[in-house]
Amino acid sequence: MYKKSPQGWLKHWDFILLDIFCLQLAFVVAYLVRQGLENPYSDQIYRTVAFVFMLCQIVVMFLGQSYQDILKRGYYIEFTKTAKHVLMVMLLSVLYLFATQQAVSYSRLTLFYTAFLYLCFDYVGRVWHKENVLKKNATKKKEKSMVVVVSLAGLNEKVTSTIHWHR
Questions:
Q1: Distance separating alpha carbons of residues 113 and 86, to the nearest angstrom
Q2: Which distant-in-sequence residues (6+ apart) come within 8 Å of 150 by Cβ?
Q3: How far apart are CA 154 and CA 131, in angstroms?
Q4: Residue 17 belongs to some domain of the structure
Q5: Distance between CA atoms of 136 and 14, rounded to whole angstroms?
Q6: Are 112 and 29 in contact (CB under 8 A)?
Q7: pLDDT band for position 2 (50/70/90)?
Q8: For residue 43, is it within any domain?
Q9: How far is CA 95 from CA 8, 17, 86, 143, 158, in A?
């Protein structure tokens, strides 16, 4: 009858998907700015890096507690948390590029553009989504429900008196 809200990182699945979307959008825009109007996923190295970005994001999400108290943060704290999140994702990605010796093949400018755009997109997206969630929660708090327990014999009398009372 009652639904228990999810606990832990799963309760912020919407922010997780938003972050993944913002990272991929930043990656595509950075690629288009740097490489021109080509599909970034058609190049093996860039396709792999796009996947690695997602994996790094998941690792940072688990280890960095990026979503702790996300609905209670102000603009400044949200910006610092978002910047820390972006920095950690990018550092892990750079570590991957160096460890696999692909850093020479991947454009550093594209990486910097991706990091900057990801910070911008993610911060704006988080603030926007947070405001929508808080508005939705405020609306839900205004809605009230009531449970009435009556015997079957008193049900007819209660319904009749309630109808007369509301007129």
A1: 12
A2: 158
A3: 46
A4: yes
A5: 14
A6: no
A7: very low
A8: yes
A9: 28, 24, 14, 50, 70
Mean pLDDT of 81-85: 94
Tally of domains within the chain: 1
64/80 Cα distance (integer angstroms): 13
**pTM attached to this predicted model:** 0.75
Is the residue at 2 inside a domain?
A: no
Question: Could you tell me the sign of the dihedral formed by the alpha carbons of 72, 78, 80, 85, in that order?
Answer: positive
Those residues whose C-beta lies under 8 Å from the C-beta of residue 123, and which sit 6 or more positions away, are: 78, 79, 82, 83
Instruction: List pLDDT tens digits, range 62-78.
Output: 887 778 888 888 999 99
Domain that holds residue 138: 8-166
Largest CA distance in the chain: 82
For residue 86, the tally of other CB atoms under 10 A from its CB is 27
Q: Which of 30, 57, 22 is nearest to 46 (CA)?
A: 30
Q: Is residue 104's pLDDT more than 90?
A: no
Which amino acid, one-letter code, is at 40? P
Closest alpha carbon to 81 in 70, 91, 95: 70
Which ranges of the chain would DSSP assign to H, the alpha helix?
A: 13-35, 44-64, 75-99, 108-142, 152-166
